[in-house]
Amino acid sequence: MSRVTLVLGGARSGKSRHAEALATRYNQRIYLATAEIIDAEMRERVDLHRAQRGKGWQTLEVPLDLAGALRDADRPGGFILVECITIWINNLIYHDKDVAAELKLLCDTLAKLKGRVVLVSNEVGLGIVPDNALARRFRDEAGRANQALAVAADEVIFVAAGLPMVLKKAKPPARRKPSKTSKRARRG
């Protein structure tokens, strides 16, 4: 089973619904929300998402220190859903943080976690080239983040029209080879 899963897709592709469905068999579910509520429309979106998720989730708002929040929330047998990487990238750019350094810290942290983590991110590189420098920077940073997280993840899923497509499959656990002593014991 995968420990870290990256779920990619476009806006309204069904990626969040798919990511949330991966949590159904876990009792301890934590939702790390990266969105900063800056206006009434964003508040309505957040409230709608919470209602759709239903009960059984602990929600933590984490606009910047994602690696720290993951370390704090990590529990063996637990499930953490990060929604979403592209909003986190936006926050880092807005607050003038070093995106590359934060991304490296996130990838290093993912390698050390004990529980199950699902990261949701938008694939923003399938459209036209943005017409301004800030939008191009965002697209580039998001693309680099998705590539780095795909390497760090055990499994990568792309969702289009609500249909999940596996891009990277988790490797099954390695089977232990019997030692020479155990082979001799079986021969008898």
TrEMBL record:
Keywords, in A-Z order: Kinase, Nucleotidyltransferase, Transferase
Domain of life assignment: Bacteria
EC number(s) per entry: 2.7.1.156, 2.7.7.62
EC category name: transferase
Record-given protein name: Bifunctional adenosylcobinamide kinase/adenosylcobinamide-phosphate guanylyltransferase
Gene: cobU
